[in-house]
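Changelog-adjacent note: as of this version, every example in the card shows the full chain rather than a window. The one below runs 331 residues end to end.
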Amino acid sequence: MIRNITRRKFIKISAAALGACLSAGRGGWAMAQKKSSVILAKTDDRKDGVQKIFKGLKTNIVKGKDVLIKPNFNTADITPGSTHNETLMALIEEVWKMGAKSVSLGERSYPVTRQVMEQKGVLPILQRLDVNILDFDELKEKDWVEFKPAQSHWPNGFRIARPILDSECLISTGCLKTHQYGGIFTLSLKLHVGVVPTSRHGFEYMRQLHSSPHQCKMIAEINEPFKPALVIMDGVEAFVEGGPATGKRVRGEVFWASADRVAVDAVGVALLKHLGSNEKIMAPKIFAQEQIARAGELGLGASSPSAIDLVPADENSRDYADRIAEILKEG
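Full-length structure tokens:
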């Protein structure tokens, strides 16, 4: 199935969809008209971090809905190389507690997806917590939906896994880390490269992405056809060099979340600056980073630091949130 659309038409469709989301309460919590709210929780406990994020939402975004969780399972490397099992368990438990109709987990890993899940030991966890597994390796060609947006840096468009597009309530969860292979950082925008097929599915999108000088812009562009209801990021530990699978590890002791992927990534880069990272993180202004700048151009979220409201999850998180807000403001 090919969706061949102009940018103008895509923006009109997206605007209409966003309006519906806001009026219905679906995914609209952090996309206020003027500012995007980002909740930040200082914690070294992953279950505590997840709980504080959902408490901070002030609204139930999952009740009665079919929830799809997109984790960071590109590889099975130790967190922040991949989503921590404790974070995943806490997220699933919280979603069930809040009255989700169903919970599924969907992913496409770099190696064979099922093998990554086996190596991480999540299959028994998912079975115990009654989570349906959507292994994107098993999708048929028709379920990799093609998009050819105008003015894209993808030479022939790209494809997105249909379950992501059809999700009633998509919750994505990633880690805090740099990316040494051209992405510079891998946060919420880069997380969604895992909804695009690879050569083992018969497509050359990953080769195109990783060989392009426009890699960062292409990362932003694959995020245009869909919108998570929430993105939750685990920064208890971070890679400030290297990444995405292995790197220089430091303690971040933070969780943060928003429905705005651009705001999530801007705060994530501010956190990396706070922790001390490489020159490609430290030198540029945050909104000059190509992933963030391109996503802003596409209307995916905040377009400047002033469009972000960083909200501490509790009093214990206030000082940390204030420090990150200052870095964000400075760029």
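Structural remarks: Residues 4-33 have pLDDT under 50 and may be disordered.
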